[in-house]
Amino acid sequence: MMSFAREIIVPTSSDETTNISERHQRLKAIFPGAIGALDGTLVHAVVPTNQQNCYRGRGKVVCYQNVLGICDFDMIFTFVWAGWEGIAHDSRVLKEVASNPTSGFPFPPPDVTLTFIDKYYLCDAAYTNTRGFLTPYRNTRYWLADFRRRRPISKEERFNHAHAQLRNVIERAYGVLKARFPILKQMAPYPFPVQRDVVIACFAMNMVTPNMQGGGSEGIEWGLEGTEYMTTLRNQIADQLFSTASN
């Protein structure tokens, strides 16, 4: 099953999606470089008593393992890394996994179409806004529930609302996965390495369409240059959204 998972959970070979709704097309047009969404999720874990503090995720009583996943806009998972302690911050998990040469992390591929559109994943504010990873504005409304009673007004809110709508694909993908495999909500007391493999197996069995092409291998620019680049890109998209709404 682990060999099957390595074969099937791989980056998609095309930017095209089968979801051709008008709303989806509009959101994709706002973020032309987006190739998917990246986020972590908590999966129930059974661990020895002397290790439970590390697995009690973010103020929770129950133990969890933190799982990092990436999916495309057809809700197909293209990467998964399981087994982190529930207490681990999402940003730390990403940095550690991305720097691990054995993880096979699919860095956003370079532009090979001469369109000069850099590729990136949509991430929430728990992550660093750096090249290849586009996050929302912080200290500004972001979650979809935040906009139910009041429409976005500022350019930052307009950006965050559009970003949240498109990034929400990974929230829905996780929801479908956990509904299909109840063991992810109530793990059996296997040895922890087996629990980790069970998670990966569930991701693999959830797949319906195999994908064929890997991503790039450029690494993540955690420094100032990468952050400034994506901040500029985010501002450009926000300005364009605000200008369009004002006309």
UniProtKB/TrEMBL annotation:
The keyword Metal-binding applies. GO terms for cellular component: nucleus. It is found in: Nucleus. One of its GO terms (molecular function) is nuclease activity. Its cofactor is a divalent metal cation. Residues 38-204 form the DDE Tnp4 domain. Keywords: Hydrolase, Metal-binding, Nuclease, Nucleus. Coiled coil: none annotated. Belongs to the HARBI1 family. This is DDE Tnp4 domain-containing protein. It comes from Deinandra increscens subsp. villosa. The lineage of its organism: Eukaryota, Viridiplantae, Streptophyta, Embryophyta, Tracheophyta.
